[in-house]
């Protein structure tokens, strides 16, 4: 419980610093929040393949966080880091899936992803293909988590699916902020959903 309280405090301090400063607090607490989740997974998760994959996904997410918050924005390296994280999460979820697929789920996720892509399309420019690939990867990651949940019906699977969906929400808001223009509540929305997404995915290793 205290470890999750530390995660929450670290996340809140980062979001607060994004609006009010100081800058050192902004730079410190974003990666620290993910690092604390990694420690929770290390000490609370079973030493198995699923836990190791989630840890690897968190590590690449941490790299992505650092790239995206550098004073000189490294958007492409950040995008690639999160792309790798989503691929790793996807492997973890699909490896945990057993049974028959529910085909209406990818239809819903795919339709939502296409709508987001079409809304962003006029503003993507040279990033059209990288963003399209990223949207495809995160959509199939959420699909894998959803199939995992519907086949297993367990609490860890529910955490994984909830985290994957929140990740889609976070990245969608971030994409609209970057390509359509910033708005005041964007940081709060992006980071709250992002930290909750990573927290749920981390929690999925604790009940296995």
Automatic annotation (TrEMBL):
Sequence similarity: Belongs to the TMEM86 family.
Membrane topology value: Multi-pass membrane protein
A Pfam short name: YhhN
Cellular component terms per the entry's GO annotation: membrane
Keyword Transmembrane appears in the UniProt entry: yes
Residue spans crossing the bilayer: 26-44, 50-68, 75-95, 101-120, 127-145, 157-176, 188-206
Superkingdom of origin organism: Bacteria
GO molecular function: hydrolase activity
Cytoplasm in keyword set: no
InterPro entries membership: TMEM86B-like (IPR012506)
Keyword annotations from UniProtKB, A to Z: Membrane, Transmembrane, Transmembrane helix
Annotated protein name in UniProt: Uncharacterized membrane protein YhhN
Subcellular compartments: Membrane
